[in-house]
Amino acid sequence: MKKVMKGLLITVLATTLLAGCGNNANNTGSTNEGAAAGGEAKSVKLKMFIAQPRLKEHYDKYIADFVAKEKAEKNIDVSVQLEMPTADNAAQILKTRLASNDAPDIFAIHAINEIPSYYKAGYLEDLTEQPFVGKLLDSVKPSVTTTDGKVVAVPLETLSWGYLYNKKIFADNGLVPPTTLTEMKAVVEKLKTKNITPFVLSYKEAWIPQLLLPLAAGAIINTENADFIERMNKDEGSFSEMKSMFDVFDLINANGTEKATEVGGDDGAAAFAAGKGAMWLQGPWYAETILKSNPDLDFGVAPLPINDDPNATLINLSASTSLAVSKTTKNKEVALDFINYVLDDTASNAFFQALKFNPIATIHTYESYPWVNDATGYVKEGKSYQDPAIPQSVKDEVGKGLQAYYAGQISQDDVIKALDKAWKSFNKVNK
User: Fold this and answer.
1) Cα dihedral value 332, 336, 337, 341, nearest 10
2) CA angle centred on 23, ends 20 and 26, rounded to 5°
3) pLDDT digits over 386-409, tens only?
């Protein structure tokens, strides 16, 4: 399996021009006119920024279908420049582009972590009156709605996650997902007696180890520290209150595959698909990549135990990747057309199913995947929580910190100090 490319992965989907069209390949403005059959045509170059390079094939196809639709229905020749950086680089690249007035027409942001600050900064177009809004499920719409009631993005991913586990390995060894940290230790020891590596480790990309933070924070906030986020936003809290998260992280690291800092997400997916580890600290958003390596793999989703309180072993519910339109786009008509095409009545069903994303709209009629049903079972039992609103800059910092901690370069206290500092810096900028 190919490794995720470093840096920017850019592809330009060229439109098929009808006979007589002028060469519009170098157009950078919003519209140019060219001769085309059926009358005057205009040419638009649309810039998109989506940090999901592992799903490039599906985006390319869907964008190509959109291009054909715009030509057929509106006689607009659309070319799309698609930037697909890795998740580690995306946030900083996008912030730099926005700050330098070089915003993509359409860009992906995290619904929970990024919409509030991006909306406050004036970067997001109001999409409240767009047709797609009426199709969103009632449970999904709030994730892309601002505090003043504006819908500012179309969601792509809604998630129910904890960690992934190999159901066959668990069944063959008489194991069930543990409900406490002590039980997880027992699962680990049982696997080791069978010469099975308990965990796949893949920390080359910092966003993967940072997944520990929302899982640990969500568990602790929902059982013993309800006002943590509120106090951190007032510079009154500290991540020292979350120090117990290192207990499970240390357990995972001591019982995982080797050379974790050399293994990225795609290689981790391949290792998990091949049964090289029974569990993986990862979410079901990697399902499509895993199943490419092993279509027959039977895997599930379970909540990660953080401590010995079974009430703290919970599924994380969240909405993440969402597409927004730049407030300053000069291609608003076509950008809005694409945003609505994401939830097209005819095409959207197959697109979301191919991506292995959860249904998010009333037009989605495909059956939920087995791993979704696993997570839903916990949710129905009340064993879930809404993803805590942790600033993206803090999540970026914890990813780097946990990489360095795994490598033995810094201590737990060093990680905690860095996170406290990152949150205080966020507060200063967002007062």
Assistant:
1) 150
2) 160
3) 888 898 889 999 999 999 999 999
